[in-house]
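Margin note: ligand = uridine 5'-triphosphate.
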Amino acid sequence: MEKVVISLGGSVVSSNAVNIDFIKAFVKAIEGMPSLSKCGIVVGGGSLARGYIEPLRSEGINNYFLDRIGIKATRLNAELIVNLLKDVENVIPESIDEALSAWKNRKFVVMGGTIPGHTTDTVAMLLAEASGIGEFINGTSVDGVYSKDPRAGGGSKKFENLTYSEALSLSIESYKNAGSNVFMDPVSLLIARRANINIHVIKGDLPENYINIMEMNKKIGTLIS
Ligand code: UTP
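Resulting structure:
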């Protein structure tokens, strides 16, 4: 791949502690790819976001203010990547427009969330659409899209390929079940569909997965197209 946007799940960069070994290996992998000329990386909030959001949710704080905290967590996680990369502006853009300017003369741009009401999957997809990039990698905690959350156990099937409409149905269905993990939020899938962006859902904490998919063109995870 020459140009790509990566949505890096918060759980991939940090779970109980910062996953520094993964981060170093990830940075080494993407910096060592000869064919890569532009790469946007949008980092999620993971347990850092949840650790701040859940206690305040219990106190009845509304989602707008909880989202505002989540955004701060995503930007803190983004700092983990931006400080180790070389060809990047060492500031975290707070909007897609800021990201586009920070990216102009650089190979990489790294950011977290932007505004309340969506997740970093949507931010990453908007970044891909705005920059005219047709390849999107969702590095997440599972190795693809399943018919049911594989961690819940009990006969779930992994998909190798999905259409946008099939992925949207699965995403909306998961949204109905409180507390379930959605592989990608529906808004990000709607943007992918209107912009015709290929989505590769892969297990995000294995640096070799990025090499396999970006350099070796191997088919791993689930392709939504
Ligand atoms: P994430 O993108 O990590 O949310 O942002 P998520 O998909 O729910 O988390 P994972 O992938 O399961 O770990 C964390 C939180 O930050 C807020 C939302 O509250 C989100 O749940 N957020 C993030 C925004 O409100 N706007 C953004 O642009 C990004």
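The radius of gyration is 16 Å.
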